[in-house]
Design a protein that fits this description.
- Two copies of one chain form a homodimer.
- The first copy, chain A, is an alpha/beta fold.
- Helix content of chain A is 42%, strand content 17%.
- Chain A has a six-stranded parallel β-sheet, sandwiched between helices. A two-stranded antiparallel ribbon of chain A has the order 2-3.
- In chain A, helix 1 (29-41) crosses helix 4, helix 1 runs parallel beside helix 8 (173-185) and helix 6 (123-132) crosses helix 8 (173-185).
- The first copy, chain A, is globular.
- The mean pLDDT of chain A is 95.
- The A-B interface holds A 30, 33-34, 37-38, 40-43, 78-79, 81-82, 122-124, 127, 162-166, 168-172, 174-176, 178-179, 182-183, 186-192 and B 30, 33-34, 37-38, 40-43, 78-79, 81-82, 122-124, 127, 162-166, 168-172, 174-176, 178-179, 182-183, 186-192.
Chain lengths: 192, 192
């Protein structure tokens, strides 16, 4: 059993676009579904979808209410259950405050990125911490062409990229979250 | 470096629906994108999308041609590259024949499912085989409410479920493929 509490956040601002401008990306319906299902499967303590715009916040709310109160919830109760751990937030500061209020601890922030950085933490080291220490972690996932640099640098840790040895590293955020959560929170399938 | 060739197939028939009727499911655009990107990242030898209906085959063809020859390919060359390993097929027999013709070997078929079966193969054992043996593997992924039983039983192996210890096991096929391919073909991140 893991000892730490673990939260994940999907951020839509400040992100890079293809030309490395700083933008807010749009909410993608299937990101919410796929990531909520991963989060529920691995008993993540909360999944935050973060967007500064009221309009996009409303879109998230409409998706949630269809699956929680509307037809979706009775058609597919598993989906309703997954969405119960999804929360909306306007920015990172709001999440930090909310988690601190719930857990009594300021979360250790962990940025993820497909690019290489110096001083990254390995999956193995972070997994060992999560399973042995009574701390609170917040894993941050970006959208678009990735998280803006200064946001990355504010984080306590930067996790190493997923496919360090590959000549192609363009996974969807849905795949990246699935793989990273499996590596960090999943069973120890690799131990004989 | 792994020794084996590994192919993956996304099947749409024969699948169960929610009521356990046997059906053909619809092709989902983002399945093609997400799984092609995973396959390319992990150097999978080929990704087959399998559907018996001419109509759905045509839909797959239209998506591919947008990203390979249309505007998509020039807008996002990474996506074009990922789609180069995507092939269409009408049924499993067609894929088996095609892989055997390419590699000279009949592929070892590996079914995946969220349900438990007796005689499943573990991730660790299959990963060791893939990295040490000069064989050809074909990993089969279902859609809808999972692969029809007799199809499962025809396979050489059934892989154990992903989240054996979880009280919730409803991942999207996009997440399941990401996690399973990472476990079987990914780097040995868990070794110190």
């Amino acid at each position: 059993m893991r000892k730490a509490s673990v939260y994940i956040a999907l951020l839509h601002h400040p992100m890079y676009n293809k030309r490395m401008d700083i933008v807010a990306t749009s909410v993608t319906n299937l990101d919410l579904h796929d990531i909520a299902r991963v989060a529920r499967t691995y008993n993540v303590d909360g999944f935050y979808v973060v967007h500064p715009s009221a309009n996009q916040q409303q879109l998230i709310g409409e998706i949630l209410s269809y699956w929680q109160e509307g037809y979706g919830g009775s058609y597919n109760p598993d989906r309703k259950e997954a969405f119960e751990i999804l929360h909306r937030a306007e920015n990172l500061a709001e999440i930090m405050a909310e988690i601190e209020q719930t857990t009594g601890q300021r979360p250790v922030t962990v940025a993820t990125d497909a690019r290489r950085y110096p001083n990254t933490i390995s999956y193995r080291t972070l997994k060992e911490e999560i399973f042995s220490q009574d701390k609170v972690y917040l894993l941050l996932f970006g959208t678009g062409w990735g998280m803006e640099q200064s946001l990355m640098q504010q984080c306590d840790y930067i996790l190493e990229p997923i496919a360090v040895d590959s000549d192609y590293n363009h996974l969807s955020v849905r795949s990246a979250v699935s793989i990273i959560v499996d590596r960090l929170l999943g069973e120890f399938w690799f131990i004989p």
